[in-house]
Design goal:
Blueprint: E1 6-7, E2 19-22, H1 51-62, H2 74-77, E3 92-93, E4 96-97, H3 125-129, H4 150-158, H5 161-171, H6 178-191, H7 198-206, H8 218-228, E5 243-244, E6 249-250, H9 300-308, E7 322-323, E8 331-332, H10 339-350, E9 373-377, E10 384-388, E11 395-401, E12 407-413, E13 419-425, E14 431-437, E15 445-451
Parallel strand pairs: 1-15, 2-9
Antiparallel strand pairs: 3-4, 5-6, 7-8, 9-15, 10-11, 11-14, 12-13, 12-15
Length: 456
């Protein structure tokens, strides 16, 4: 008996009708390069990023079937071309518009703050991922106001063969649970990173934030110093006190920033979190949507003007945004930055924009315009191969574990050009056994099991 090396080739299918999810050669999610000066990571020990898990998360993130009426996905409000935010001030859901602006998801992993949402109500990213799904306005599986509950979404996904196949491939069995959905989406979101900015080039060149960066203009270097230096006579803007470089994440102990209005009217004093300051604007300099939870500032210049003169001391205002006052207590911050200093600070913030986040296929929509996939190439873990016979009667028997009663396609080749293909169906125990002519490939064979989703 002889066992040949198990190798996988590129899919021979023409995939004009949709994309290919390749779980043998998946996109690189788990071991992406991260600069050595980034030392913050909120990934929990029980949910590390894996290539397979993040791939499943990507499919879930973009699938509109996770909403009550199949019209809204996570990506509807978190768009790749906007650093995973939204140009709209309030994003559209299944039953209206959101109460806060859609937060950018860039570098969500690299933060000392482990809580999520503007008001930090989710203790982890995992907990956050399914709350929009369970929101009446956003995705509609709230279990209230006439909505189906989350268990109904699980029932909905369980009858979709694609998810039976994907959950089996990732978790070892096809069971779909909220915890597995949370873990997969969280892995995908944590994989979304941006470290190819001009700031990163300069930081790598000098090894610290303080010295001038050789790739910066005078204005950008001056803006960097203003960002780093504390406020006061002859000082800076003090931005780094709440948004410490090089991660530019929000300090976990921050209060609100004086923007306390609410979309639609009223007050909202509970916003104490913000996304990373990376990719505030896109590569062309256009804002990736409005700023703050209200989306009320359209430009960086408006944001800086707000911090230059905080309107008032309000309930929950971060103490770092105040200045000593008289008998009445602290007064609102007044930085007294000149027009040029404010322009320099904006110039520096624009250096935090990367490029790959906007175009990298691994973070893109895997579906076609009809919400379909063409092929899922499955992992080869557990595949067994044995040869029998001799000469032209030589055969290869391949055994695989799959989802019971689901139709698959088994393919083999000796040269990656001529392929044999066989439709196979898993039995009631989820087993597949295929007997094919042994490839004449001089000790090397190429095999794969794939799933071709039927149009829904």
């Amino acid at each position: 008996m002889k066992v040949l090396p198990l190798l996988l080739a590129a899919a021979p299918f023409a995939c004009a009708a949709g994309g290919v999810i390749d779980l043998v050669n998946p996109a690189r999610y788990a071991d992406q390069p991260v600069p050595d000066y980034i030392n913050r990571d909120n990934t929990p020990a029980d949910n590390p990023i894996t290539d397979h898990g993040a791939t499943l998360g990507r499919v879930l993130f973009y699938d509109k079937r996770l909403s009550r009426n199949d019209t809204i996905s996570c990506a509807s409000c978190h768009q790749q071309e906007r650093a995973f935010s939204d140009l709209a001030v309030a994003s559209t859901g299944v039953a209206g518009t959101t109460g806060r602006h859609s937060m950018r998801l860039v570098n969500a992993r690299f933060s000392a703050e482990e809580h999520f949402f503007w008001d930090e109500r989710a203790p982890t990213l995992e907990a956050q991922t399914t709350q929009p799904i369970q929101d009446h306005v956003e995705m509609g599986f709230s279990g209230a106001d006439g909505d189906p509950g989350f268990s109904d979404l699980v029932d909905k996904l369980e009858v979709i063969e694609l998810y039976q196949v994907l959950f089996k491939a990732v978790y070892g069995d096809p069971a779909i649970t909220e915890a597995r959905i949370q873990n997969a989406i969280a892995q995908f979101v944590r994989s979304i990173q941006s470290f190819d900015s001009r700031y990163d080039e300069g930081r790598a060149a000098v090894g610290a934030d303080g010295p001038p960066f050789p790739n910066f203009t005078a204005s950008e270097n001056n803006g960097k110093q203003l960002f780093l230096a504390g406020p006061g006579p002859g000082g800076g803007a003090g931005c780094a006190a709440c948004h410490q470089p090089p991660a530019f994440d929000i300090a976990p102990n921050s209060g609100n920033n004086g923007v306390v209005g609410a979309i639609g009217g009223g007050n909202d004093f509970t916003v104490t979190r913000s996304p990373s300051l990376r990719d505030l604007v896109g590569p062309g300099g256009t804002s990736n949507g409005g700023f703050m939870h209200t989306g009320e500032f359209a430009t960086l210049e408006q944001v800086i003007a707000h911090y230059n003169a905080i309107p008032a001391v309000v309930t929950g205002l971060d103490p770092r945004l105040t200045r000593p006052g008289g008998p009445g207590g602290p007064q609102a911050q007044r930085l007294n930055l000149s027009g040029q200093q404010q322009a320099d600070l904006a110039a520096f913030l624009r250096t935090l924009t990367g490029s790959a986040i906007y175009t990298d296929p691994k973070w893109s929509d895997p579906f076609d315009e009809d919400g379909q996939l063409a092929l899922v190439v499955l992992p080869t873990d557990g595949m067994t191969m044995t040869f029998s016979g001799a000469g032209e009667a030589r055969q290869l028997t391949v055994g695989m574990s799959a989802v019971a009663h689901v139709d698959y396609v088994f393919q083999w080749s000796g040269d990656l050009e001529q392929w044999g293909s066989l439709a196979v169906t898993a039995d009631a125990q989820g087993s597949i056994e295929v007997v094919v002519p042994a490839p004449e490939c001089q000790g090397q064979g190429f095999f794969r099991l794939a799933y071709a989703p039927a149009a829904e």
